[in-house]
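**User:** Hello, beginner here. Are you able to go through the protein record under this note? It all follows right here:
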Amino acid sequence: MLASTLCLSFPFPLLRLRPAVLLTAMDSFPEHNPEPTPEGIKELDVDELLKWIQQNHPKILKRDEPEKFQMSKISGKAFLTYAGDMQFFMNECNLSILTSETLANLAADIVRETAGKKRKLLSFMPCTPRRQQANNGAGYRQQAGDAETSNTASKGPRLESEDDDQLQELAASARRLRERIRQEIGKLDHPSISYSEDVVPRPKDVVSRPEDVVPRPENVIPPSGGAVSRPHSVFQLSNPTFNTKLPFPFVGYVVPRRFILDGEGDEENWFYTGWEKFTEVLDKFEHLIKDRRYATLTLRGTRGYSKSHLLAALVCYLAAKEKRVVYIPDCRNFIENPIDDMISAMLFAWADDESKQQRIMELNTQDDIYQFFRFQKNVIFVADQTNAFEDEEGDDGWTKMEKAEVCRWLQRCTARHKSILSSSTNNHTILTRHSNEIMYV
């Protein structure tokens, strides 16, 4: 999705080049040179990059895959730009799932290892295992370890009793929140109203006259099957004259300031006004779930047009319908607290499964979380304010690198799942993302 420039060196073991398919195109690349830095990899053309992969990682590309890789014209810059993005290598190179994932992970490991060494030099570890992350008022993660903590060490006891108690309370809060949302959406549900694929309810009359319809806009993907039955809550949430209070579907400490809250603790709610776009987004989401060509739906629009409220309402609706939704309400805060925010989102997504919640609370590192998502099915990611990953004026090199690393990790977590993202219209990076459908709101 997004990229950053990296310019740090690191050691990597050299392997001898096995018999290559495309030697003549790559004779200029020295056989025994140390592995190039990420900045050096960015300068490689496709032939040089292919030789580097074959020389240092000879088991990745097999049979006709070297030819496919060369035909794709993937440069070193693109290789690092799409670190962690398995779909990119599948679509652009026509490679197998296993090979695509291995290449995506290789690029991500290069970026992550370099960032880890940079952190150690700076004695500042914003995304490392077991750290006390900034702005985490809940304080449920202990500061310990460093960026070089091994996978074996990360499996050991992570939390002391006080931290464990706080995580247990967070999990219980997620269960209570999920139940409250189920009840609130249930209050909005009445007997389902059917309508044909060519019409949608007129929002201002949806409650009193559901049979009053207007033509469906051309840019709405029609539901399959000729007719669709919608719970009454869908029409309520799409009605501009409808106002309600909904529980905010996130148990992390920070709630974005763009949400007006009422109440305290478990009774905290936010104000929602219905929007016609809700039905359209739901239609597109259902189409996304069925269409294997697309993995991501991105909502784009000008600031102030309630994209965040629309997404939060959608999360409430999907959670009430027993969908497994991992909701990240603010990517800007997520950059500062990636592990804590993700754990909070996961505890809510699996609030109906206490044994799975227990497993989630034992996850310690970004890689632990990634491996967890690899073996889950039917997970839906919803991430708001993804433009936070864009480079901004005034960002120093470290800030850009931190954004890129967190973004690539998020991409790795979502690679096998469907995602709904939102971004402002000035975020152009998402337009280049593969398997992505854009909706303007």
In short: The two ends are 20 Å apart (CA to CA). The chain has two domains: 24-122, 165-440. The chain has a mean pLDDT of 75. The CA atoms of residues 37 and 259 lie 44 Å apart.
